[in-house]
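Q: Here's a chain of 110 amino acids. Please give me its 3D structure as tokens.
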Amino acid sequence: MDKRLEQANCLTETDCLLIDPRSDRETLLDNAEMRLDAIKDLMFTLSTMNGRDRDLTSVDLSNLATVARYLMGDASDLLVAARRIDAQQRVAARAYAQAPVARRAGGGHV
């Protein structure tokens, strides 16, 4: 298996979105927002449909619910991954701030 796939995050127990561990926070948040917008649009479309005129069936509703569930799962996984990046960056910044000046990058003997 490709090493990048071995390091990818799969935070759900079912089929999942593979998240590239090299992704930055903004990319993760943009992709989560994209999925949430898709769910919002899907739910708007569903709420404006009239079952009698458009032959909306229980199968259609089930299919729409399944799509929404997958999109919500993906968005949730992306948000969790973005939060992890934030937490890692805060820990790294705190460790850097607490390190002696000589151990910081660029602070050694000349």
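Q: Can you summarize the key feature?
A: The mean pLDDT is 79.
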